[in-house]
Task: inverse folding
């Protein structure tokens, strides 16, 4: 589970077994885990986060979309 970004309480990562899915990122805080697709940036699952936090996370994913996508491609060698 490579961690590709940490911002505040959030850890952004993907699973090694995610290769067969479209590029996406998991975001974890405590016992909550959301998932966002990266192209285009959109919510896949909210994982227990509040609506306000999902909006905040969506903005972060949008802001870091390029480096997150580059990390995905580098790890999975796309």
Result:
């Amino acid at each position: 589970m490579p961690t590709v970004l940490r911002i505040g309480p959030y850890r952004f990562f993907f699973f090694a077994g995610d290769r067969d899915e479209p590029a996406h990122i998991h975001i974890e805080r405590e016992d909550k885990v959301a998932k966002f697709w990266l192209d285009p940036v959109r919510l896949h699952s909210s994982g227990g986060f509040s609506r306000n936090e999902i909006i905040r996370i969506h903005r972060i994913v949008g802001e870091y979309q390029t480096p997150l996508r580059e990390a995905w491609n580098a790890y999975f060698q796309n």
In short: Residues 51-63 form the longest helix (13 residues). The CA atoms of residues 41 and 61 lie 7 Å apart. Strands lie at 3-7, 10-13, 24-29, 32-38, 41-45.
